[in-house]
Structures are given as structure tokens and as C-alpha cells.
Amino acid sequence: MKKLLLSSIAFVFLLTSCGSKQKGELTGVQGKKWYPEKPYGMELIPRGSFIMGKSEEDQAKLLNAPTKTVTVRSFYMDDTEITNSEYRQFVEWVKDSIVRTKLAILADELGIGPEEGGIGDYAFKDADTTRASVYDKYMLDNYSGMGETGYEGRALSKDEELVWDTSDYPDEYYTEIMDSIYLSEDESYNGQRTIDVKKLKYKYSWMDIEAAARASIKGNGSRKDFIRTEEVEIYPDTTVWIRDFSYSYNEPMHNDYFWHDAYSEYPVVGISWQQAKAFCNWRTKFKNDDNKSRGRQFVNQFRLPTEAEWEYAARGGIEGGTYPWGGPYVISDTGCFMANFKPQRGDYAADAALYTVEAKSYEPNDFNMYNMAGNVSEWTNSSYDPSAYDYVSTMNPNGGDQSNTRKVIRGGSWKDVAYFLQVSTRDYEYADSARSYIGFRTVQDYMGEEDSTQ
């Protein structure tokens, strides 16, 4: 018996040693090969240091931007503001997901599956048990009914296209769901069926890493205590074109600016800070869902730039420049305005634009960033504190106080005077506010060079 036991141990040892490619050496855990790629529509901003703040005279005497030498890490940044077309992609995705979720839930309540057609074509994927994976069956058996609605974690079926033409609705149940996402007849006019945009909500979770790190020093809290859940109405507030300007006729912008194809390449406005954050989360999810389907590793998150990152990118590598193009003047040597802003009292159109212009207008700076001055002001991730420069770190500085609802906006806009276009000028708006002159662009942390062989 002892000989048999020893033989078994020796046999196991031979299996483990002969099958190993490491030969007893410390070779590290071999993970998936990482193929970094440059995100579409973004430019690499190389790491570096710069003097952040008002190196020139602070004409407004705000005293909120004393000079400070700081260093930022490398990151990618959108070369333009997020456009109406790009934000509409987010809105369409949310609308599609909400409709499919409603259809799947009703199909589940009625016990209708794909084999019965109609609304059954939109049933949850795990409804067809012949095609469900072992994992799907396990989750359905063990976690069904958990969560706020009882349907969390169940995969939607996206095999069937949604039908929007009322004459082609497959059955009465489908009609019931589609009717629920439109405004009632007494709220519509001109015979148009209009989506109830208040129902277009994006729900997501994120982890407050900074709060968790501070709590861990004291040994307080568990991981779940720092997971935050947000639910945000994501449709732009188009009424900003009316509300921002009293005694001014701007109805055409209210009616057409966001949805009409004529404005597709213009920067999206009427977006609050919370909505911009929700867009960043969705963009990360959208990319990683695709990577998952291709068997590739996830990318790190898209996010809003910190105030320091924004200013560094706006300067374009030019030390001491007043504007993104460097010089102290807003008119070129050929007599052309360098940005879209309010150059003279009441004369918004002197720079060849009345409101916003297309996102790729005027000349980019040396980092190939368009409209870092003018067009629309841009949300940053940083909270506004007049004395922030006195205490923020010199390495990747960020005033990220979650309790402070005043958020830094940068760059000036089409309705601002030249002072606000300066790369070092600070301004703010409240996080829940939306304006006709505030948009945003996103960034992503740099994680390596692109593999040109892929």
C-alpha cells in the first residue's frame, strides 16, 4: 500500500514537472497578449510638465489661477468636441436598449418565447433554453428575481431588428410597448409621434476609488460601500437655446440643432456634467462589449479630462502661450479670426459664425486639437475651488471633490469675449446645469504604443 501511494505521488510529480514550460524558473503569469490601439477620433497627448495658471496679467483680477509647475501623464484626447452625431449614437443606443428591455420583460411575464414569434422574438436570450449556455442556466436558476426589477443580469436578444413603422408591428403586445415610449396624443402636435425623452435614462454603476482608498487607511467600510449607482436622463436639454437668452428669438436652434442632419458635425450642447459622465461610461461599455465579442482585453475607461490635462492639451506644447495658437492676438496676420467667440460688443458674427460652428473648424493647435478656444466651453472632471492651485498635487493635479457641485469649464465659447478663450482662464458651472454654450470632449489614459502589425 505504501509503495502504491509513493508511486502515485511520483506519478503526479512527473505530470506537473514534465508538463510545465517554466522549468522551475520565475517566468510570471502569462496573460493575454495586449494590443493597444489609438482610440478612434483621438490624439495622443504626450506626458510632460508645464506652468499651469496665469503667467500673463490677470486682467479680471480673479486671483484664482496662480502659476504652478505641474506634470501630467500621457493620455488620449478627442481631437474635437463631442458632436451631435456622436451623442445621438448614445441616445439611439439607450432608446434601443430600453425598448428591448420592455419587450423582453413583457414576453417573460406572458411566457412567450422565440418559438412563438411576435414579441417572443425579443425575449431574453436565456428564454430559449436550447441555446442558453451552462452559465446562463446557472444564473437563471440561482439568481432569478434578485435586484431592483428581478431582471438584472439577463441578456437581451439583439438578433431581431426593432420595428418602428406602426404598420409593421408584429402583434398587439409589441404595439403596447412601443406606444408606451411615445408622448400621448394630447402632448403631440402636427401629427408627429414624438418619443418621450424623459424615459431615455441610462443607469450605470461606478466605484468611488478615492473614497475607498481614504477609508482603507482607517480600516472602514467594505467594497460595496463605495459602489455608486447613477440613473441619468440623457437627452440634451434643447430648451437652453430659449432659456439662456431672454428677449431673443432662437426657436430654430431649439427645434433643429440636436436632431437635424444639418447640425450633425456641430458640438452637442445642453449637456449637464452628469450627462457627460454618463456618456463616458457608455462609451467605455460600448467599446468593451465589442472587445469581449472579439476575445480581446478590455480598454481602460473613457472619462472627462482633469483641469490640468485640459490646459496642457490646449497649450499644445507652447510654453507661456496666451491662446492655443500661442500668440497674444485673436486675429491672424492675414486678418482672420482664430476662433469662434464674441469679438465685438453685440457683433457675434464678426468671426464668420453666429452660434456654434462645425467641430473641425479653424486651425488645430500643435497637438492637433480643434477649438480648444471658443465654439463651446468644455466640462472637466475637476471641481472648482478658487484656491485649488494652492493645494493640488504637482503630479497629475485634480480637484475632484465629489461634494462640490461647481465643476470647472474651460476654453470659452461662441458667446464669450476673448478673455475666456485664454488657455489659463478658469470658469465654472453647476454639475446639474445645461447650457447652449457648454459641451465636452473625453480622454483615455495612455497604455502603450499601437501595434502596427494588427
Automatic annotation (TrEMBL):
<dbReference type="InterPro" id="IPR016187">
    <property type="entry name" value="CTDL_fold"/>
</dbReference>
<feature type="domain" description="Sulfatase-modifying factor enzyme-like">
    <location>
        <begin position="42"/>
        <end position="443"/>
    </location>
</feature>
<dbReference type="Pfam" id="PF03781">
    <property type="entry name" value="FGE-sulfatase"/>
</dbReference>
<protein>
    <submittedName>
        <fullName>Protein involved in gliding motility GldK</fullName>
    </submittedName>
</protein>
<dbReference type="InterPro" id="IPR042095">
    <property type="entry name" value="SUMF_sf"/>
</dbReference>
<dbReference type="GO" id="GO:0120147">
    <property type="term" value="F:formylglycine-generating oxidase activity"/>
</dbReference>
<dbReference type="InterPro" id="IPR051043">
    <property type="entry name" value="Sulfatase_Mod_Factor_Kinase"/>
</dbReference>
<dbReference type="InterPro" id="IPR005532">
    <property type="entry name" value="SUMF_dom"/>
</dbReference>
<dbReference type="InterPro" id="IPR019866">
    <property type="entry name" value="Glid_motil-assoc_lipo_GldK"/>
</dbReference>
